[in-house]
Amino acid sequence: MKMTEKEQFETINVFGTGNPNEAFSQYFTGNSFLNPLTNPQETAVFLANVTFEPGCRNNWHIHHAKSGGGQILICTAGEGWYKEEHKPPVSLTAGMVVTIPAGVKHWHGAKKDSWFSHIAIEVPGEDPSNEWCEPVSDEEYSKLAEE
């Protein structure tokens, strides 16, 4: 369900918006927020609720690992986009799960007219790393078909 008003969105964003995602802001177009759900010092799996304001998206990026690794997104509120390189975009809504293998160049974020949240899960792997690539251009983003 599209959510244009932040106050209305907050009532359904059950994992909480958290704080401005300042540590990674250089890898986002628009404002994002981060609410860690697990402590990486206490568990091998890090989970965080990531919230995107309307139109916000992260840069193209790749999760690397010698084995295992990758990312899982569990969509929890609002509407967003997921896009893998050389594949059509996927319209995201609450309840959807996206499995992203290591080595796949992709991006994800909110639709232009909706707040969006997902839980991001870093899949454990051998020597995992994240490579941030170029931003998603306004031209490329504006070409996404609204559903």
Order of helices and strands: HEEEEEEEEEEEEEEH
Number of helices: 2
Any idea what the shape is? globular
Give the N-terminus to C-terminus distance in angstroms: 11 Å
User: CATH homologous superfamily?
Assistant: Jelly Rolls
CATH architecture assignment: Sandwich
The assigned structural class equals mainly beta
- Main sheet record: 8 strands, antiparallel
Number of domains: 1
Helical proportion?
under 10%
Supply the CATH class. Mainly Beta
Low-confidence stretches: none
Arithmetic mean pLDDT: 95
Number of E strands: 14
Looking at CATH, which topology would you report? Jelly Rolls
Q: Provide the β-strand percentage band.
A: 35-45%
Radius of gyration: 14 Å
Description:
The chain has 147 residues and is mainly β. It has one domain: Jelly Rolls (Sandwich). 7% of the residues lie in helices and 44% in strands. The chain contains two helices and 14 strands; from the N terminus they run αββββββββββββββα. The strands form four sheets. Strands 1, 3, 4, 8, 9, 10, 11 and 12 form an eight-stranded antiparallel beta sheet that branches. A two-stranded antiparallel ribbon has the order 2-5. It has a two-stranded antiparallel sheet with strand order 6-14. The longest helix has 5 residues, at 6-10. It starts with 5 loop residues before the first helix and ends in a 5-residue tail after the last helix. It holds the Pfam family Cupin_2. It comes from Merdimmobilis hominis.
Secondary structure blueprint with pairings:
Layout: H1 6-10, E1 19-20, E2 28-29, E3 32-36, E4 46-52, E5 57-58, E6 61-64, E7 67-68, E8 71-84, E9 90-93, E10 97-100, E11 106-110, E12 116-122, E13 125-126, E14 129-132, H2 138-142
Antiparallel strand pairs: 1-3, 2-5, 3-4, 4-12, 6-14, 7-13, 8-9, 8-10, 8-11, 8-12
Region (Disordered): 127-147
Organism: Merdimmobilis hominis
Domain Cupin type-2: 50-113
